[in-house]
Amino acid sequence: MKLKLIRKITLPILIVSLIIFSTGLLGHGIFWGIKTAFGYGGGGGGYYPPVNTNTNTNVNANTNINQPIQVLAPTIDAFSSPTGNSILVLHGGRDANTIVFINNSDNSVSYPTATTWQATVSLEIGLNFFTLTAKNSIGTSSGAVAIFVTRTGSADITGDNITDDLDLAKLVSNWNKNWSDGDYNKDGIIDDLDLAYLVSHWSI
Question: Looking at residue 12, what is its pLDDT?
Fold first, then answer.
């Protein structure tokens, strides 16, 4: 009987001791273990682990520092080719605050508005090739736009290097019109003066 009584008394004490010991090992201290074991909240709602109030986040302010700046290539309006003119005025659009270059030079380029450009280029007889690019204020360049213009020799309108009935048909189809390709004397109209010029260069 005494042994049973000792076991009845010892067993609850052992269980309570294990609870106090184990909760103490979890880092909350022996007093918190006692409160837990006996259901005592201390009047303040119990113990709560400290909350990390540091709300700072590791934000990289230079997220875009290595991203390339895109420069839009300029656009070019439609132009006449082939042409018999020795000069040609090219024009088109551009991104604001960019400089337009033709064959890596901006000497002949002007800017009628903040988003347009124009330039006068000289043409040699045959095929003429130009590259059109834009640069921003820090020198970043856009992609290149290729421009091909054919200048006809003599009275060759069609660009096949001979003045023949095909050129005559082109001229006649634009009779009394302001058509620069066949307006050899540059008076703003296709007439008998241009016809006489074409005939004088027949088969040349």
Answer: 66
